[in-house]
């Protein structure tokens, strides 16, 4: 091979490969050419060569999504605050309605039985109310005087028992640091002493103000009568007022809430009665003073789930500790724990269906929130209200699953014919929602493609000084150092 051939081959190897010229865009700009290789030219800014996604854009998209959901949350929170504010303003009228609804759910099975026997509706309602309130009034009349007179002694002895517990914790073998223990015990003793001074009137009336209590009870009685007498006509009226579609949903949801409330109250009454009877028998066998009063307190406090049973058991143990000693108090504690285990593991699962079960954490938080805001009435109403909210949320979840296709109408246990129609309509509309979701997906894809195209055009329109910096391609007349031969490769 001659020297000229070698020189030509070396020039061919060392010379950069010229890329194919890209077509110009609408503004006449051409993309930057990279001489010599596919690697970015030295000194070229990232904006001219980066093919990834800017972190700022990704963060901005995420922040926009967060802002959208935050705005929705704020709107919902504002609406709930308005409802809460209105509820606080009309609470005097709302409380009798809620109590009357709860009482009506308990009495309705008896009214329905009388109606099936051919008894007129008004007569059936009056007979049921007279029978129910007569029994309750007779029990309260017989037990209230003794309970009221002994309740102060119960709280006083409980305070003394807590003082003994504090002394044991301070001494051997525990020898605990007493500063914080004394603070907690003193607060508990002070509370018990305050309650002992008000116990008689508190247990006799159920509320602090006798006048308010009497007015509330009178309203509850009247509302209960109308709910039992005219309650079945409420749902047809609601369907006529709200319309067919909304009326069907309201009929099914409210019927489920009604059954849940009735089942909860009846179950809780049975459980409370069993707790009171078993604990009362145990106290009588152990010859603990005030056994009858403690049994009655156990019955009423058991209507407040978890917290009520704990308070009633603690009072029984403390009274036994003061009056009978440590061994009797230990036996009372065993009886209380055994009864509560029977309640939680046998009675509740047997009497309440799985649909009524709520997590103990939800029950505890509901009772704590209701007691903190509305006192004892709030603690009593907390679980029924929470159970009603859970039922409504479950119904909404079922409707969503029907529209997504995850459930069918045959999978649901509807309680009304209107609920069956609503479920069938929701299942029938599932293809419509799938088509709507597909259109939304296509719209998002088009938006993404448009944004990608816009970003590509933006990069093609970068200033020439940014595209050519480092390669000299944009400077007219400039020497192209990459195109000249290496030293010693020119013609000899």
Structure description:
The chain contains 16 helices and no strands. α4 (91-116) packs across α5. The protein starts with a helix and ends in a 24-residue tail after the last helix. With 492 residues, it is mostly helical.
List the helices and strands and how they pair.
Blueprint: H1 3-14, H2 46-49, H3 55-89, H4 91-116, H5 121-170, H6 178-205, H7 210-230, H8 234-242, H9 244-285, H10 291-301, H11 307-324, H12 326-351, H13 360-404, H14 417-428, H15 430-460, H16 464-468
Q: The biggest beta sheet, please?
A: none
Structural class: mainly alpha
Task: Report the helical percentage.
Answer: over 70%
Portion in strands = under 5%
Shape: extended
What letter string, H or E per element, gives the SSE order?
A: HHHHHHHHHHHHHHHH
N-end to C-end Cα span: 16 Å
Q: What is the overall number of helices? A: 16
The rounded Rg comes to 39 Å
Q: What's the mean pLDDT score?
A: 75
Multimerization status: single chain
Q: Count the E strands.
A: 0
Spans of 5+ residues with little confidence (pLDDT < 50)?
Answer: 9-22, 33-49, 198-209, 470-492
Describe the structure in brief.
By secondary structure, the protein is an all-alpha fold.
Characteristic terms for this protein:
disordered C terminus; mainly alpha; 16 helices; 492 residues; extended; single chain
């Amino acid at each position: 091979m001659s020297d000229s051939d070698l020189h030509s081959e070396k020039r061919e190897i060392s010379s950069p490969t010229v890329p194919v010229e890209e077509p110009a865009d609408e503004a006449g700009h051409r993309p930057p050419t990279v001489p010599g290789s596919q690697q970015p030219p030295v000194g070229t800014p990232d904006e001219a060569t980066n093919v990834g996604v800017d972190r700022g854009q990704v963060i901005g998209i995420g922040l926009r999504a967060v802002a959208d959901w935050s705005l929705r949350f704020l709107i919902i929170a504002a609406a709930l605050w308005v409802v809460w504010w209105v509820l606080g303003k009309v609470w005097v009228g709302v409380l009798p309605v809620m109590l009357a609804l709860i009482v009506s759910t308990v009495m309705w099975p008896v009214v329905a039985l009388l109606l099936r026997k051919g008894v007129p509706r008004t007569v059936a309602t009056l007979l049921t109310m007279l029978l129910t309130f007569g029994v309750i009034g007779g029990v309260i009349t017989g037990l209230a005087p003794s309970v009221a007179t002994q309740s102060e002694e119960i709280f006083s002895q409980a305070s003394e028992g807590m003082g003994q517990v504090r002394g044991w914790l301070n001494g051997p073998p525990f020898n605990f640091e007493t500063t914080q223990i004394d603070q907690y015990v003193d607060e508990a003793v002070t509370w018990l002493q305050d309650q002992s001074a008000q116990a008689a009137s508190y247990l006799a009336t159920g509320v602090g103000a006798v006048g308010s209590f009497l007015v509330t009870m009178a309203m509850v009685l009247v509302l209960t009568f109308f709910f039992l007498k005219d309650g079945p006509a409420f749902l047809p009226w609601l369907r006529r007022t709200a319309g067919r579609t909304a009326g069907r949903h309201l009929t099914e949801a409210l019927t489920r809430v009604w059954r849940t409330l009735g089942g909860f109250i009846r179950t809780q009454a049975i459980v409370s009665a069993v707790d009171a009877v078993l604990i009362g028998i145990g106290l009588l066998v152990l010859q603990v003073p005030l056994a009858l009063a403690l049994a009655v307190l156990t019955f009423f406090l058991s209507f407040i789930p978890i917290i009520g049973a704990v308070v009633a058991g603690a009072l029984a143990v403390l009274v036994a500790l003061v009056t009978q000693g440590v061994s009797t108090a230990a036996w009372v504690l065993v009886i209380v724990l055994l009864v509560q285990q029977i309640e939680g593991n046998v009675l509740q699962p047997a009497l309440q269906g799985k649909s009524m079960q709520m997590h103990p954490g939800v029950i505890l938080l509901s009772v704590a929130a209701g007691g903190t805001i509305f006192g004892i009435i709030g603690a009593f109403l907390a679980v029924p209200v929470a159970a009603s909210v859970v039922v409504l949320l479950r119904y909404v979840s079922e409707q969503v699953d029907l529209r997504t296709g995850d459930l069918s109408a045959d999978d649901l246990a509807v309680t009304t014919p209107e609920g069956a129609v609503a479920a069938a309509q929701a299942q029938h509309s599932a293809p419509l929602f799938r088509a709507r979701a597909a259109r939304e997906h296509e719209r998002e894809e088009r938006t993404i493609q448009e944004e990608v195209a816009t970003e590509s055009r933006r990069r093609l329109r970068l200033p020439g000084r940014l595209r050519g910096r480092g390669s000299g391609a944009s400077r007219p007349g400039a020497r192209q150092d990459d195109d000249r031969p290496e030293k010693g490769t020119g013609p000899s």
